[in-house]
Design a protein that fits this description.
With about 500 residues, the chain is of the alpha/beta class. It has two domains: about 210 residues, Aspartate Aminotransferase, domain 1, CATH 3.90.1150; about 220 residues, Type I PLP-dependent aspartate aminotransferase-like (Major domain) (Aspartate Aminotransferase, domain 2, 3-Layer(aba) Sandwich). About 40% of the residues lie in helices and about 15% in strands. The strands form three sheets. It has a seven-stranded mixed beta sheet, with helices on both faces. The chain has a four-stranded mixed beta sheet with strand order 1-2-3-13. The chain has a three-stranded antiparallel beta sheet with strand order 11-12-14, with helices on both faces. Strand 1 and strand 2 form a beta hairpin. It is globular. The two termini are about 35 Å apart.
Length: about 500
């Protein structure tokens, strides 16, 4: 396997051995789930959540009357109830009861420089004094941010700022259809590309298809197909078949793997997909909402040396401020976007958004990226991700657990139950009830493990994923590992 080892400017110091990871995944999901001991879970619930978080619990009970599910964001819900946070700084959070936490959620991965960094905050305050957050008109910071990104991303000649990664993914597939005149879009099973109707197909678990796409008419998925991660033959079969079904407009992938690398890809897989797209006349879309800037300042496309036709960005592009999204790509394609003056004649793809490219978000993103470059923040965050992962592996070995820890730089994964590591085969329908039951059991185990992490002062993404940033220190990571140790010692024996 061709593995790239970089230290200067790259967030990933060494690419993982994907085959060995999948061997560990298989052992995990074929071993009975190792959950917290019931008495330990009860202790966490009673001594922490009930006694130390009364204000959060009261606010949650208020919210249930007014907000569906009592939360506005899917990452905000935590068992047994969501905690309400009032303060964020560098690598830390504080809830409304005054409890402090090490923040591995990091705004869903958006605060690579750290939460509310002072150099950016000062620039944002100055801008708010001058013009306010939104004008819906042209502003210099959208040009500055565009220039910064284009100078570093090899696959981006032009860029359109948008309001979110979801919007950028929607715009990418619309533009691909305009450019190619073809219909079909191929994605990887379990890949997350926002919550638009078409791209909701086959999310979370490969093979799931439209099983959880409630509220979306079946015909919406007529021109969406799913290939299994790392199965390049599966991808080529679909592209061959599509030649007789309207052609393939684009293949869209997260270059490190579906769901932010939860289903990691072989190092050479993006290159192989690039070759197939060239062979079958499809555009290649890299969804770099997470990998953009966390892999390196030129994205995963720079790291792998694979140039996509279109690139989707989000998260850190606004430095943790709202309206974080962008669609970039080759000039000849981007000129087919509607809006403004000039561009190619003929059919164009319409994208928009009232808050897109607002001065506040563009300025915040620009100064965030400048600071990251100035302080080599991407590589620093990656090294701290390495330290966290190594420590987790040592704890897994210490307690003889089947858990799997790995990282792609500052993107750290900890699989304790593995509900997202299952595959669904709809043709073997007789297996589905048992497999779905086991999947939901393991999800429950993972959610309760996340509650234990929270009670130990560790905020994670659903109890299974973590992001480090440039504001973390080795001391913070070592403190976090002591807290993980306290949770792991409370796991049930076989």
């Amino acid at each position: 396997m061709n593995q790239k080892n970089q230290t200067n400017g790259y967030g990933i110091s060494e690419y993982h051995d994907t085959a060995k990871l999948y061997e560990k995944f298989d052992r995990l999901i074929n071993t009975p789930a190792r959950a917290l001991r019931p008495e330990a879970l009860t202790r966490y619930l009673e001594e922490y959540f009930d006694k130390k978080c009364p204000k959060s619990k009261a606010l949650y009970n208020r919210a249930k009357a007014y907000i569906p599910g009592a939360v506005q964001h899917n990452q905000a819900f935590n068992y047994p109830f969501p905690l309400a946070f009032s303060r964020a700084w560098e690598a830390f959070l504080e809830d409304i009861d005054g409890n402090q936490y090490i923040d591995f959620l990091q705004g869903g991965g958006s605060t690579l420089l750290g939460s509310n960094p002072k150099p950016v905050l000062e620039k944002v305050k100055a801008l708010l004094d001058e013009c306010g957050p939104v004008t819906c008109l042209f502003h210099e910071y959208e040009v500055k941010l565009a220039e910064f990104i284009i100078e570093r991303f090899p696959g981006i000649d032009m860029i359109r700022l948008l309001g979110s990664g979801t919007e950028a993914d929607m715009g990418a597939i619309r533009l691909a259809r305009v450019v190619t005149g073809k219909k079909n879009i191929v994605k990887l099973g379990a890949g997350f590309h926002g919550w638009s109707d078409q791209l909701s197909y086959a999310q979370r678990v490969p093979g799931l298809g439209r099983m959880e796409c409630h509220g979306i008419p079946r015909n919406i998925f007529k021109y969406i197909q799913e290939a299994f991660p790392n199965d390049i033959r599966s991808m080529e079969r679909i592209l061959k078949r599509n030649r007789f079904r309207g052609g393939t407009a684009a293949v869209i992938i997260e270059p490190l793997g579906p769901e932010s690398g939860t289903r990691p890809l072989d190092y050479d897989y993006p290159r192989k997909v690039r070759e197939l797209c060239d062979r079958y006349g499809a555009l290649l879309i890299f969804d770099e909402v997470v990998t953009g800037f966390r892999t390196c300042l030129g994205g995963a496309q720079d790291y792998f040396g694979v140039i996509p036709d279109l690139t989707v960005l989000g998260k850190v592009i606004a430095g943790g401020y709202p309206a974080a999204g962008a669609l970039g790509g080759k000039r000849e394609h981007m000129e087919r976007l509607a809006g403004g003056l000039g561009g190619k004649k003929g059919k164009k793809a319409h994208v928009g958004g009232t808050l897109a490219a607002n001065p506040l978000s563009a300025a915040a993103g620009y100064y965030t990226l400048k600071e990251l470059e100035k302080n080599d923040g991407v590589a620093r965050a990656g090294r701290l991700g390495d330290r966290l992962t190594l420590g987790l592996k040592q704890l897994i070995s210490k307690y003889r657990l089947p858990y799997v820890a790995y990282n792609q730089g500052s993107m750290v994964h900890l699989e304790t139950a593995g509900p997202v590591l299952f595959d669904i085969n709809l043709k073997r329908f007789w297996e589905l009830p048992k497999k779905v039951k086991e999947l939901y059991h393991r999800k429950d185990v993972m959610v309760k493990m996340g509650a234990a992490f929270m009670a130990e002062g560790l905020v994670t993404v659903g109890g299974s994923r973590m992001f480090t940033n440039a504001a973390f220190t080795e001391e913070i990571i070592d403190d976090a590992l002591v807290r993980f140790d306290r949770v792991f010692r409370n796991v049930q024996n076989v």
